[in-house]
Each structure stands twice: as C-alpha cells, then as structure tokens.
Amino acid sequence: MDDRTKIYKEALTHPIFEIVSQAAKNLAIDSYVIGGFVRDFILNRNSKKDIDILAVGNGIDLALEVSKLIPNHPQVQVFKNYGTAMLRYDDIDIEFVGARRESYHFESRKPVVENGTLEDDQNRRDFTINALALSLKSKDFGRLIDPFNGIKDLNNKIIRTPLDPDITYSDDPLRMMRAIRFATQLDFKIDEKSLNSISKNHKRLEIISGERIVEELNKILMTPTPSKGFLLLYQTGLLNLILPELTALNQVEEIEGHKHKNNFYHTLEVVDNICKTSDDLWLRWSALLHDIGKAPTKRFSKKQGWTFHGHEFLGGKMVKKIFIRLHMPLNHKMKFVQKMVTMSSRPIVLSQKEVTDSAVRRLIFDAGENVEDLMTLCEADITTKNPSKFKKYHNNFKLVRQKIIEVEARDHIRNFQPPISGEEIMQIFGLPPCREIGSIKESIKEAILEGIISNDYNAAYQFMLKKAQEMGLEIINK
After folding, report:
1. Separation CA 177–CA 171 (nearest Å)
2. What is the second-level CATH architecture of the domain 3-156?
3. Kind and range of the H or E element at 55?
4. Nearest-CA neighbor of 126 among 181, 183, 189, 172?
5. CATH code at 157-242
6. Residue 308 in this model has a pLDDT that exceeds 80
7. How far is the C-alpha of 324 from the C-alpha of 245, rounded, in Å?
8. Whole-angstrom Cα Rg for the chain
9. Does residue 300 carry a pLDDT above 80?
10. Is 415 exposed, middle or buried (0-12, 13-18, 19+ CB in 10 A)?
11. Per-residue DSSP letter, 3
12. How far are the Cα atoms of 45, 162, 191, 288 from residue 378, in angstroms, in the given order?
C-alpha cells in the first residue's frame, strides 16, 4: 500500500469521528477530517484541541446533523458568511466546512468561493502538510488522501505549497507568514522555491490587516526559539514591512576603531533567552522591542565612543506607535510593554554598582508589581560570550534580587501608597488642592525612598509637620 493511501484508523478512535461518519451517511455526502489534526497525529504532536471536518456538500447541514446524534445536542454556531459551523464536544472544538474552490482578485485576500470537490479543497490548502485528509466514509474509514506527497514532506521536515508558490502566496499573502510560523513551530525548513517566492512576493503582505499579521507574530513569539522565525522574516523582506524599527538595528558602524555590537542579532538572542524562563507573551514582546530606541539615539564622540543615551525612554514612546500601527491592544498589555522597555536598563545599571537600599527602593517603586518581570527581562539581556563576565553579571543580579526581597520585606514599597493622603494633608492645613500640598506629598515619598524616614504613618506625619513649618504653613485641624 502506498504511504499516501495508508489506513490511519488509530487516529480516529475518538467517538466524534464515528458520529460524523454516520451523520454524513444520513445526508448522503462524503466527509473527511483534514488539516492540522491529521498533520499533528502523524507527527505525534498531540497539541491540537480542535478538529476540521470537510464535507463534500453543505458543512453547516453536516454540523446540525452531528449535533442531533450527540446526547444533549450541543449548540451549533453557524457562520453563514463563511459557510462554516462549529460545535464543542468533549472539550474539543469541531469546525465544519463544505469543500470549495477559490479564486482571488489581486487587490484582496478575500476569495470568490464556489462549491467544489475534495480535490478542489486540497488544491486551495496552504501547504502539503496541511492538505492531508482522512476519510470518514464507512467503506474506507481512516484512509489517508495525500495528493501532494505531504507525508514525504513531513518526514523530510519541509514546508512546501501544493501548487505554484507564486500563486499560493500572491492569492493569500498571509500564507507567507504562516509558512514561517510553521517552520518555526515544527523546526522545519521552507522549500527553496517557496522561500524564494516569499522574498519575491513579500510586498503583497501590505494588503493584510495588522491584526492577522500580529496573530502570526504572536504564534512565532510563543515558540521555544522565535529567532528562527524572525531571521526568516528578515531574510525574506517581510520583517522590514512589519517592524522596520527592528530591522533598523541590523547595522554595525565603525569610526576610528570604535565599533558597536549588532543590536538586531543581540535582540533575537534576548528573545530566545527569555523564552527559556517565561511563557508570558507580553514579556516576550518586551524582549523583542527592548532596544528599538537604539537606532535613532545612536551617536559617536571621540570622548565616549558609541552611545545610545535615552534609548529606553524613546523606545517606550515607540512602543505605542507600533501597537497603533499593527492594531494591537492599547490597554494594560501595551502599558506593560512600555514599562518594561522604558525600564529595561535600570536593573543592569544597578547590578554594575554598589546596590544601595535607596536605589532598590526606587526600582521597586517604579516597577511596582512588575519588578520580577523586569528582572527576568534584564537577566535575558545578558548575551556576552565571555564566561567570566556572564557569571559576574548573573551573580550581581542574584544580589539585586536578594536586596529586593530584603528591602520589600522591611519597607513595603511595592504598590506603594503614601502613609498620609493628599486629602488628609489638605484637611490638616485647611488648604484646597494646590502646589504646596503636592510638594509635601512628593517630599514624603522622596524621604521614604531615600531611607530618611520609614514607610509608616507616624514617621511620615512628623516629617510632614517639619516640611510644613519650613514652608510657613500652620495646622488648622489636628
């Protein structure tokens, strides 16, 4: 038996497949399980919690018939505009679609859709490894239908399009991102003809929405080694369309024997490093963007050599522009990334000096509940290849972490709230909101952070009275 027609009944042991088979028989249509479920089963990757069912007929009708055959009749979500339906059974999302053929207009990735055969539907698939289908017909239940030798590509770890890649990528340019994402997720190589086609067609990505692009970027960032994907994005020209702020870092200049490091490749190392210690998507975004302010702030002087003064502050401002441009969430997630980028050098500077209590208090105050994330980012930022320097930096960070624990236990700076509120200060001195009230509040905060007074009410009250006396204020209400 040809590998491409092998029987894979062991993939179809879940009861849903027999139910779909019976429902399709009731409707006198053929049905298949297709795509990622089949691919992942053959790769022994049991990561998917969803199944795509292809009906050579009406997919919505098949979903409704399946629901009738399942006890408790799970609700069917119908998406008429797309001709698809979905239901949830045994914690698995099952999507139903009718076989179709597609044709595209050059200026849009939205296809003109017509009813089609199984062959038509497999032809329109993005990659050979995603065109694999298993029959759910009773006469050949579990038979693999593999018209493009997808099994061979799985074995050889190759990403290849079923048809001419120029047509595949021009029709739906998002497939270029998907090719790179799958290559990164599965640790596969992109077929040379296909990779050249991505480079040739990369500007077609301009018709794709920021939301769809970011969805693929997020999946690349959530892999164990995102640098593989970002290098492919850079190599093909896609990254310069998506994140020119990042590609601007890929240059090294030398003046009078002074050379700075390549901050693009350094950034990819930092991203890979942080993936070893955190699976937080937004912390990974922070690592990706932490040095974007370096290209526009780069300066050379004979006295100092290469400098990047203020790159963290500028980088934080650039984060918002990127999030807006790519239609990313402008909420607490963006603010978190901004904070991490803006503060990305603080612990590093701290670790290179004597670690004072006041400096640690300020770090905890400014980072707040994100101080651990910030430390994780900064440890990932150590990419030196010098073993003694690497060990020294990590040991210094251990000292900073220990100091954070000690200072926080004693001074309770994290999520700091002033021991005396502005309202109480106004009441004591009989004043409305004014510059003097703000000055007293700020002085109390600074005194606590500098260790002049402890972080408690009595110490703050006595300090307030002293400060007010210096300003010529009198107590009205004790």
Report:
1. 13
2. 2-Layer Sandwich (3.30)
3. strand 50-56
4. 172
5. 1.10.110.30
6. no
7. 14
8. 30
9. no
10. exposed
11. G
12. 33, 44, 37, 12
Chain center to CA of 434: 44
Q: Is 176 exposed, middle or buried (0-12, 13-18, 19+ CB in 10 A)?
A: buried
Amino acid type, 37: F
* Cα(170)–Cα(343) distance, integer angstroms: 41
Query: Could you give the residue range(s) of every CATH 1.10.110.30 domain in the chain?
Result: 157-242
In a 10 Å sphere around its CB, with 0-12 CB exposed, 13-18 middle and 19+ buried, how is residue 379 labelled?
buried
Amino acid at 473: L
DSSP type of residue 143: B
Q: pLDDT by residue (tens digit) across 238-253? A: 999 999 999 999 986 6
Name the nearest CA neighbour of 365 among 407, 400, 402. Answer: 407
Closest by alpha carbon to 96, among 112, 80, 109?
80
DSSP notation for 332-365: HHHHHHHHHHHTTTHHHHHHTS---HHHHHHHHH
In one letter, which amino acid is 68?
K
Beta carbons of 361 and 452 less than 8 angstroms apart: no
Strand partners, 56: 30
**Span 423-438, pLDDT tens digits:** 899 988 888 888 888 8
The answer to whether the pTM exceeds 0.90 is no
More confident residue, 100 or 31: 31
Q: Is 477 exposed, middle or buried (0-12, 13-18, 19+ CB in 10 A)?
A: exposed
Between the two ends of the chain, the Cα-to-Cα distance in Å is: 94
Per the CB < 8 A criterion, the answer to whether 122 and 147 are in contact is: yes
- Owner of token pair 């980072």: 367
Place of tokens 């210094």: 396
